[in-house]
Structure formats: C-alpha cells, structure tokens
User: Fold this.
Amino acid sequence: MTEPIIIAEQISKSYGRKQAIDHLSLTIEKGSVTGILGGNGAGKSTFFRMITGLVRPDSGRLTVLGEEPGWRTNSQIAYLPDRARWYGNYTAEQTFDWGSNILPGFEKSEALRLAELMNLPLDLKTEGMSKGQEARLMLILCIARSVPLIVLDEPFSGIDGSSRERIIEALIDAISEKEQTLLISTHEIYEVEGLMDDVVFLKDGAVQLTGNAEKLRTEYGSIYDLSKKMGD
Amino acid sequence: MQGINNQSFDALLRHETRRVRKNGKPRMSRQWWMIYAIFFLAAALILTTYFSLSYHIEMKYIWSVCWGIPWVVFGFSIGKIRREWGNGTVGWWLALPYSRWRLIAAKFLAMMVRGLCLALIAFTLIILFGAYATLISSSLSLHDFQIFILSGWLPMLLDLAAFPLLAGLGLFLGVLRQSTWRPAGILFWVFWGILWSLFSSTGWFQGVYNGRYDPLALSAAVIISWIAALLLLLLSSWLLDKKLDL
Amino acid sequence: MDERQVGSLSFSIDFSQPLYEQILTQMRSLIARGTIGLGEKIPSVREMAHELKINPNTVMHAYQELERDGLTEKRRGQGTFATTSMMKIKQFKERFALEYAQDFLENMHSLGFNLNEIHTYLTRLSQEKGHRKND
Assistant:
C-alpha cells in the first residue's frame, strides 16, 4: 500500500527575490487523499504546477510517477489549475467530446453520468454558464478520467454551497471506485475534513507539518482547528 | 499505458482552429451581424457603381488589400497565445499530454488555416467586385477583367509566402511576452526594424508591387519564410518548456 | 459534533477525534444493541461515505474490523449484512464485557479498593443513574 507517487527532495523555486518553494521535501503515497493546506503564498499552487511540469524547480529533485514531471507524465495526471476558466465556446457535451479525443483515460459515459448527478446542462456554452456550473464542468473533466493521479487546485473557490456539496459527492465516488491518488489544495477545510487521509501544511514554501489525518486528530483535534492554529 | 503518446494531433488541431473570443466579452447577436453585412455590401455596391460610371478606375490597385492580410494573421497569432492567459485557460493548455512543440505547431497550423480562409475570402470578394465593375462600366472590357484577375495572382502568392513567417512571428512574440525573456522583446523589434529597412532598400517590394518579380527570388522568399517560421516555433516551444513565467 | 443520518440510523461525527474509531464503535453498538437487527442489511460503504461526508476508505476499514468481530458478513453481490447468529453477537459482547470489566477492576485495585468497596460504588452509580432517568 505504501508506494510513493510523488517524491520531492529539497526542491526550491524563486521568483525574483520571492522564494515560492524553499527546500521542500515531501512524499505522497499512492492511493491516498492528501490535503495540501496553507495560507496564500504558502506555495501550494507553485508545487502543483511543478507536479504538472508547468514550472521547473531551480534546484532539488522532483519525481512524479517515477519520472521527471513533463508532458509525458501529464497523460497520467488530471489537473485542475488554480483560478482556471474553461474555453467559452464549448458546451459541456462538446467539452466531453474534446476530453475523449484529447485526454487519456477520459470516459465520456462517466462524464455524462456525473453531469446528470451534478445537474449540469449539456447544451449550454461555457460563456453562458454560472461560475458554479463552469466549476462543475471543469471538475468533471478531471474526475471522469481513470488516471493514477488527480491534482485539484482550490476546486471550491468561488463556488456556491449546492455545487460544493455535489463536487464532494463526486469526489467521494472517485475515491471509492478507482484507486486514484487525490491531491487537493483548499481553504475550505471544513468541507473536505473527513475526506483526507493525509494532511500537509505548507508555509513559506516549506512543510510546516505533515501527517496522517487520523493521527493528527488524536494529537491536535480537528484539522480545521489545527489549521487555524497553524495560521497564527 | 494505452494511447498515452499517440493522443490524436488531429483533435488538438481541431481544438485550435475553433475561434475563441475573449471571455466575458458580450457576443454580437446574429441580427447585428446581418445588419452590418448588408450595410457593408450596399456601401461597396454604391461606391463601385459611382466610381465606375464617373471615372476610369485602375482596378488592379484593389489588390493592395492583400498586403494587409499577413499582418492580420500576425495579430491573430499574438492573440492566440495571449488569449490562453487572458481567458485563464493556460493551465489546461500547458498541462495537455502533448509536447510543447506539438502544442505550438497546432496553433501555427490553425493560424495557417485561418490565413488561407482569409485569403480565399478576400480573393473571392475582389473578383466579384471586379466582375461587377466590369459589367457596369462602359470603358472596361472582358480583356481588362482578365488582366485584372491575372494581376491578382502575385499578391496572393506573396500572401501565402508570408503567412508562415508572420504566424510564426506572432506566436513567438506572444510566448516571449509570457516568458522570463520578456525584455528581449525590445531587442527583437530593433533587430526586426533594421532587417526590414535593409530589405526594403533593395527595392524588392516596389518591384513586386508593380508586377515585376524574379521567380527565383520569390521561391527563395517562400523557403526563407518557412525556415524562419520553423526556427521561431522551435524557439517558442523551448521558451514554453524552460522559460515560462508562471 | 455533527449529527448525521444514514437511512434510519443516526451517527454523531466529531472531527476532533479519529473517524475510524467513531464509526467502528457506533456500528458495533448499533448491532450489539439490536438497532440493526439480526441479518439486516447495513448501509453500503458508499452510502455511509456520502451521508457522513467522509473518506470511503475509512468506512471500509471500519467495516473490515466489524467483519473480524464477527458482527457482519458479506454476501456476494448483495452487500454487507449484520450477522444472523445471535451466538456471534453474544460472543462479541462477552469479549468486550470481560475486557471492560477487567480494565475497570484493575484501575480500582490499583487505587487500593477491595471488591466490597467497588461494589458500593457500582450500586451508588446505578442508583444515581436510575434517578437521572426518572427525572
């Protein structure tokens, strides 16, 4: 069960004078749900962009699925970028066709099932969708894929309560039906409190605290309360 | 692992040939499009009628419109890159399971298709305009019309020759602007200005404009255009891979 | 503390405590006390995960432990059911009764109480509890 899917060894990345990632070392286990938590500028998004090869570390070594991250490993990763928008001229149905043709492991039938579950109209163009509908569409694009790794950067930001509820239900199904590794960064800890197997707190680009969620609960109480303490 | 490395390039190309508007920009309704189209057509008809009845017009100058088309392609190409950032879709684009080279090549080919469509539309409209002017003019003969059409081949050919270079250039500048090499943009324009003035001073453009050209020089221009495009695309994909400022 | 309903069963989930143990103890109690009757179907892992908003793997691990306890049994293609054997439940309860009683006695002995004194405490406690119930 304990086989690493992501190994970061002393990786660093700076933008000008700002150190976005600072000698970060971290191992993510296969098949786990890991919450990457931390305030703004903690380095969550930069770390996710490194996993998908969009950003390269200045130093250190990052291994994803046994390789250096890049477009080849991306075929096995479903990635929801932070503050992402979808192409406005696609309807949901067209987006799913796009997914079937372009994204490895994408299953249109699964996407359609999720769209129905999440109450997403199929023939509406994205430019006409509400923020919540667009977010649901983008999430489906990620979780209707049978790939080993799903990386979601702030999947709940700016999304209304009912959409959140539906997204979490879909995530629960994704965890149980496929043996996927799920990485979520979020501010809305309360929503995913019960979902996380492991928790990583980032601060100033380095690991502040990491551990099994259940063990952390025994020691510190709920992850939500812990995150408030960590923020101070 | 099935199908990991052979995701269809075709699908990516189809994706890139779709027109993307700026997100959040309200779209003009079909009725308004119709109104503008009718207005434009009517204006063209009236002007053509007026000028051909009152003056003897040198129709071949209308082909000058073609000089603008490559620059339209250039602008579209810059926008093609900028829009990924502006619309917030860049994360999706760059995380696609295609090499950087294929990502940029798909955009390039999409721009070529767009350019060809534009050229074709311009060509057809100009011919129609010529036919109409010939028909209503008392001084223009069928022979004049034939000469008019023949004089259009060269600008069209030049357009086709210029497309790769300008599409490549547009994409390159678009990528450059998003990379850590951004400051090199100024250097590039200086370089471009010098090259352009040197080239203009040879009088090649003037010659072509007047219908004189050396077939050898023209083929050389086509080859140079493609080679330059290739280099620009390679450079762009390298920038996308190593020097992005995300 | 969150009260959540799964079908007709109610669970209380406290996110400041390990979730696995909460599910395990509450499921054990539901079966031991007969709230879930002999041979009755228990909620699926998916149903539990959805309603309680917790990781299905956590539920699954708790369910595996229940099976080891002998309190549930899987039926192929039909799901998981409470055991049909009264004996097994009795065995389970006895095992825990002995364990709890032993722990209790050890604690009391270590404080120097003898059996008589312990008995007095138990009587007093159960009387108090009885009063409280009557209030």
